[in-house]
Specification:
alpha/beta; TIM Barrel; 8-stranded parallel β-sheet; 16 helices; 8 strands; binds adenine; binds zinc ion
C-alpha cells in the first residue's frame, strides 16, 4: 500500500514552510549565520520535540526559525522540502509562511518573497510541481501588526494566492482579525484560517461568517456542533486536516481516536496534509500511510481524499484538469 500511496498524485494544501526545517539544516544555517543554538547536537534537537499541546510546539517552532536570515536560506529551506515532497509523490504544494517573526528579527519582506519565489520556480522546472503561496498572520499578535504586514506585502500581491491565520488559537478568535480580512477581501485576495484545531467549533463558524474564508485549516473540532457539520457538508467547505500533527500536539491521544472517520461519514470535504513535517513525524506519505494503518482505508478512499485536495487547490483550471 505504501508504494501505491507514493504513486498517488497528491496535493498538499496545509504546510508551514518554517515547519519543514529539519535539525540538520537548522545546524547548517546556524553556522552560516553565526546564530547560537540552545542545542548541542541534532539528536538533542529531536529529543526536544516532545509536545504537550500547540503552545509547547510553537515555542520550539519560533525558536527554530531564528536561523533564517537571507534569501538563500529561504530558498534552501523551501527547496529541501520540495525535493522531499517530490519523492513522496506530491505534485502541488500550497506553502504558508509567517512573515511576522522574520520581520521582527530584521529580515526584509523582499527577502522572504525572493527566496521562496526562486524555490517555487525551480520546483516547477525540476519536478513539474505547481505551487501556491499563502501569507499567514499570527493570531496571538495584534490586529494592527497584521494590517501592517498586509500593507507591506503590497509589491508582491500578485504572488500571494491567499492570506491565512495561524499560531496560538485559544483566546484569539477569528473576529479579532475582521478588519484585516476585510481589507484582504477588498484587495481580491482569498482567505483561509486555522480554526477548530485546539479552539472550539465556534471559531470555525466565526472564520466562515466573519473572515469569509474559502477553506478551514484543521477544523477537526467541528464534530462538536451538529449544525456546523451540516453546514460544512452542505457547502462542501474544504477542511485541511493534518492527522500526525493532531497526534503530536495531543489534540487526539492516538490516531485511532481521531474524528477523521466521523468527518468522512458526515460527508465533509476532507483533505490530508502534513502541517509541520519536520516536527510531526514526516511528510505527506507518512500521513497517508498512518491513516491507512489506523483506519484501514482502501485505494478508493485515498483517491477521493486526493481528489478533494486537487479540487480545493489554488491552481489554473488547465493544471486541475491535468491532475484530475
Ligand atoms: N503554525 C505552525 N503550525 C501550526 C499549527 N499546527 N497550528 C497553528 N499555528 C501553526
Ligand atoms: Zn497549520
Amino acid at each position: 500500500m505504501k508504494d501505491w500511496l507514493q504513486t498517488l498524485p497528491k496535493a498538499e494544501l496545509h504546510l508551514h514552510i518554517e515547519g519543514t526545517l529539519e535539525p540538520e539544516l537548522m545546524f547548517e544555517l546556524a553556522a552560516r549565520n553565526d546564530v547560537a543554538l540552545p542545542y548541542a547536537s541534532i539528536e538533542e534537537v529531536r529529543a526536544a520535540y516532545n509536545f504537550t499541546n500547540l503552545q509547547s510546539f510553537l515555542d520550539l517552532y519560533y525558536q527554530g526559525m531564528n536561523v533564517l536570515y537571507t534569501e538563500q536560506d529561504f530558498y534552501d529551506l523551501a527547496m529541501a522540502y520540495f525535493e522531499r515532497a517530490h519523492q513522496d509523490g506530491v505534485v502541488h504544494i500550497e506553502l504558508s509562511f509567517d512573515p511576522q517573526p522574520h520581520l521582527s528579527r530584521g529580515v526584509a519582506m523582499r527577502t522572504l518573497f525572493a527566496g521562496l519565489g526562486q524555490a517555487r520556480e525551480e520546483a516547477e522546472r525540476r519536478f513539474g510541481m505547481s505551487t501556491a503561496l499563502i501569507m499567514s498572520f499570527l493570531r496571538d499578535r495584534s490586529t494592527e501588526e497584521a494590517m501592517d504586514v498586509l500593507e507591506q506585502a503590497a509589491p508582491w500581491y500578485e504572488q500571494i494566492d491567499a492570506v491565512g491565520l495561524d499560531s496560538a488559537e485559544l483566546g484569539n478568535p477569528p473576529e479579532k482579525f475582521a478588519a484585516v480580512f476585510e481589507r484582504a477581501r477588498t484587495l481580491g485576495i482569498a482567505r483561509l484560517a486555522h480554526a477548530g484545531e485546539e479552539g472550539p467549533a465556534a471559531y470555525i463558524s466565526g472564520a466562515l461568517d466573519v473572515l469569509d474564508v474559502c477553506r478551514i485549516d484543521h477544523g477537526v473540532r467541528c464534530v462538536e456542533d451538529e449544525a456546523l457539520v451540516a453546514r460544512l457538508a452542505n457547502e462542501q467547505i474544504p477542511l485541511t486536516v493534518c492527522p500526525l500533527s493532531n497526534v503530536y500536539l495531543k489534540v487526539f491521544e492516538r490516531l485511532e481516536d481521531h474524528t477523521l472517520p466521523a468527518m468522512l461519514d458526515h460527508g465533509l470535504c476532507v483533505t490530508l496534509n502534513s502541517d509541520d513535517p519536520a516536527y510531526f513525524g514526516g511528510g505527506m506519505l507518512n500521513n497517508f500511510v498512518a491513516c491507512h494503518e489506523a483506519f484501514g482505508w482502501d485505494e478508493d478512499a485515498f483517491r477521493s481524499l486526493a481528489r478533494n485536495a486537487i479540487e480545493a487547490a489554488f491552481m489554473s483550471e488547465s493544471r486541475r484538469e491535468q491532475l484530475l
